[in-house]
């Protein structure tokens, strides 16, 4: 019984211990109230110019990105090996002899024809430069290239004719000079002549030349005046001394004049 009293505490001791360790309600510390954050000031409005700059910058960056992507795609495409083409089927000698001969001869003739074409173009260019000069030749070639780029049927016809000619640059220059003449003169030749005459009449130097030419022509006409032929008459001093036929003292005036003007 003594051992049981020592190990099991009585209810009074537990109650006393609880009372001593538990503080009263009035002695509990007050908990601090949570502080609210101060209200934040509204952010200032972004200027419209700044927004525009930002939008333009983004668009420029997008364009630059797209350009880089395009370049990368092209680079990758170039690095890819070209598709392997199967060799064309050769013609059979017995089934198609003409096609067989052409296939055999064409690889041999193409380099020769290209060589002849290069030589023809070279000498045609040298002759055109010697005759017309570098500027006119270059201008004619550029004019033909522009017309061909614009799909001008006449320009393509001139090009084909030049490639088949022994003087290709001569054909191109003739076409270019003709185009310039038509552009300057127009379709009415009489109106163009009248225009040139009006412009020359307004030129003081041309007027001076016209006056000089007219003056020289007038002097030349004055020196070569066609005068009427005057019969050669005897001297007036000899008229009085002209012999009168003897025994004809009563000669008439006509007879006296004929006697005086009769050649001796």
Account of the protein in words:
Among the domains are: 99-185, no CATH class; 189-218. The chain has helices at residues 2-7, 11-21, 48-79, 97-132, 134-149, 153-163, 168-185, 189-201, 204-223, 236-240, 253-261. Helix 6 (153-163) packs antiparallel against helix 7 (168-185). The chain has 264 residues and is mostly helical.
List the helices and strands and how they pair.
Blueprint: H1 2-7, H2 11-21, H3 48-79, H4 97-132, H5 134-149, H6 153-163, H7 168-185, H8 189-201, H9 204-223, H10 236-240, H11 253-261
Query: Residue share in helices?
Result: 55-70%
What does the main sheet amount to?
A: none
Structural class: mainly alpha
- Radius of gyration using CA atoms only: 62 Å
Give the averaged pLDDT, no decimals.
76
The CA-CA distance between the termini, in Å, is 221 Å
Number of helices: 11
Shape: elongated
Strand percentage lies at under 5%
Q: What is the H/E string?
A: HHHHHHHHHHH
Which structural traits does this protein have?
single chain, 264 residues, mainly alpha, elongated, disordered N terminus
Short description:
The protein has eleven helices and no strands. The chain has 264 residues and is mainly alpha-helical.
